[in-house]
């Protein structure tokens, strides 16, 4: 191991083999129960704390510290294939792909977050719930549409006079609430839609 003279400065330790190849390090730690990186100053004892060196960042997917509970696959196997997988009972439970997608019980999540099975949340889940409305004059039908990126969950119509007749109130598609009515008094009609970010 070569000595590196340092005086009143900072330094950085980079682990790599010859020619920026990690094969040498991979082979050295392949079958070890545990390995550490330590730094010594002269003949003094190694500085503390030592850094635990897990084999997985430098090698192919396999056991970490002799156990099958955690698997880390690094990009040096197949460019762009790096992922992090957490296992229990030799089954992948949580996956983080190299694009940032996270899956719980999902091996290859196509969305930012996917869960296979039921999920419980102790707090609130923000789905962008909002109510939008419009006012229509003396016409036989009126509709209001949810903002871009949101779908209609429900809606309703408000007629301003008892002589007015509501004969339809329903979503005409995934984004629009429709009202059909007869307004003999010619008053304003309000149409409402409850919208949210849902699929």
- Backbone shape: rod-shaped
- The averaged pLDDT comes out at 77
Strand coverage percent: 35-45%
Straight-line N-to-C gap: 59 Å
Summarize the biggest pleated sheet. 5 strands, mixed
Instruction: Kindly state the number of beta strands.
Output: 13
- Write down the secondary-structure element order: HEEEEEEEEEEEEE
User: What is the domain tally?
Assistant: 2
Annotation field: number of helices: 1
Spans of at least 5 consecutive residues with low confidence: 57-66, 74-78
- Please give the radius of gyration in angstroms: 31 Å
Helix content: under 10%
Class computed from helices, strands and strand pairing: mainly beta
- Widest sheet: strand ordering: 3-4-5-6-7
Structural notes for this entry:
With about 200 residues, the protein is mostly beta strands. It is built from 1 helix and 13 strands; from the N terminus they run αβββββββββββββ. It is rod-shaped. The longest helix is centred in the first third of the chain and has 7 residues, at about 25-30. The strands form 4 sheets. Strands 3-4-5-6-7 form a 5-stranded mixed beta sheet, with no helix packed on it. The chain has 2 domains: about 20-115, no CATH class; about 130-195.
């Amino acid at each position: 191991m070569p000595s590196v003279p340092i005086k009143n400065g900072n330094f950085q330790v980079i682990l790599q083999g010859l020619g920026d190849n990690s094969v040498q390090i991979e082979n050295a730690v392949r079958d070890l129960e545990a390995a550490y990186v330590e730094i010594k100053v002269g003949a003094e004892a190694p500085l503390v704390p030592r850094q635990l060196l897990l084999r997985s960042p430098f090698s192919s997917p396999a056991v970490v510290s002799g156990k099958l509970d955690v698997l880390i696959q690094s990009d040096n196997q197949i460019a762009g294939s790096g992922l992090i997988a957490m296992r229990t009972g030799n089954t992948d439970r949580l996956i983080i792909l190299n694009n940032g997608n996270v899956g719980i019980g999902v091996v290859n999540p196509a969305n930012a977050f996917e869960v296979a099975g039921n999920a419980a949340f102790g707090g609130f889940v923000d789905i962008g719930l909002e109510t939008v409305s419009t006012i229509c004059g003396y016409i036989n039908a009126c509709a209001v549409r949810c903002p871009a990126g949101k779908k209609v969950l429900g809606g309703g119509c408000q007629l301003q006079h008892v002589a007015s007749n509501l004969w339809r109130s329903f979503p005409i598609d995934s984004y629009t609430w429709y009202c059909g009515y007869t307004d003999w008094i010619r008053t304003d009609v309000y149409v409402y839609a409850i919208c949210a970010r849902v699929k």
